[in-house]
Design brief:
The protein has six helices and no strands. The chain is mainly alpha-helical. Helix 5 packs antiparallel against helix 6 (295-313). The longest helix is centred in the middle third of the chain and has 126 residues, at 72-197.
């Protein structure tokens, strides 16, 4: 049974759900990090949640820390210096926050694209496995057909041997009749010699000659009849042989076409599997670049890559 491709990641988490979860965590005094928001929601793609979380943070007004309660004398002396440092720190903090939000959005988009490509790769791999299984099933069907053709050919060969044996028997009968004809001719010659040697036995010799001629005519008639039967059997045997050769040629041509079609299907399945493996290697390289910046995506991507490599190393016939 072939492996079904996994469904694409769930994309139903909305911005409002992520914002509500972040505000809930912040209200409880916890920092709304990606891991805490994912745990709070219990479902959804980490990449999509990261994008919504970054948008929520960007939409929030920048909060300034409360002013320290200092003596009035120190406030007047340090006010200008504090404002200068605070402005510089705030500007730098906003710049870093913008850069972090931009990086997080880019990583989220890249992670979603990676998940989509992995889903497409699994779909193509499943299609290649299905095509390979169909090619194997077709090969088994062709092998069964070839066995049936071989059995039919053996039956026809046995029938041809039977016809040859019958023809051999007919030839033996013709040879026997030919010997009888020769004996009849010898008997006629002996009768003629007896007629010349003894006129007294002429009538007897003539009668013997008549009997010999009758036997000869009967033998000749039997020879002609057997010869005609032999010719008819020979024609039938030649026709059977021609028909058998034609059928065997047609069966071999059809078998060759089936084997060629099965070979082409097998080559196409192997080509698709190799292309899928190459695309999987490229996806793994890009996934390693994401592992250093997003821990949640790293765990999920590693598990999928290990599973894919195990399936690729197993023979096609043994995959579930």
């Amino acid at each position: 049974m072939s492996r079904q491709p996994s469904a694409p990641p769930t994309a139903g988490i909305s911005y409002e759900q992520v914002a509500a979860a972040a505000e809930n965590l912040e209200g409880r005094g916890a920092e709304p990090t990606l891991a805490r928001v994912c745990e709070h929601l219990g479902a959804g793609s980490p990449n999509r949640i990261q994008r919504h979380l970054s948008a929520w943070r960007a939409a929030r007004p920048a909060s300034s820390p409360p002013a320290p309660r200092l003596p009035e004398a120190l406030i007047a002396a340090l006010e200008e210096e504090l404002e200068r440092h605070a402005s510089a720190a705030l500007s730098r903090g906003e710049q870093l926050a913008d850069e972090a939000r931009s990086d997080a959005a880019s990583l989220a988009e890249l992670g979603e694209a990676m998940e989509q490509r992995l889903a497409e790769r699994e779909t193509r791999l499943a299609a290649a496995e299905s095509a390979a299984e169909q090619a194997l099933a077709r090969r088994d069907e062709l092998q069964a057909s070839l066995n049936e053709l071989r059995e039919s050919l053996e039956i026809e060969q046995r029938e041809a041997r039977t016809h040859r044996e019958a023809l051999l028997q007919t030839r033996q009968q013709v040879d026997m009749l030919r010997e009888q004809l020769e004996e009849a001719v010898q008997a006629r010659l002996a009768a003629e010699r007896q007629a010349r040697d003894a006129d007294a036995e002429r009538i007897k010799a003539e009668r013997s000659q008549a009997v010999a001629e009758a036997q000869r005519d009967s033998a000749l008639a039997q020879v002609r009849e057997k010869t005609e039967q032999h010719a008819e059997l020979h024609k039938e045997l030649q026709a059977d042989r021609a028909r058998q050769r034609q059928e065997i040629a047609e069966m071999r041509s059809e078998q060759k076409q089936r084997v060629d079609a099965m070979e082409r299907a097998r080559n196409e399945a192997q080509k698709q599997a190799q292309e899928a493996a190459q695309r999987a290697s490229k996806a793994e390289i890009r996934a390693e670049a994401l592992q250093a910046t997003q821990a949640a995506l790293k765990s999920r991507m590693d598990a999928m890559q290990v599973q894919q490599r195990q399936r690729s190393q197993r023979p096609i016939g043994e995959r579930d």
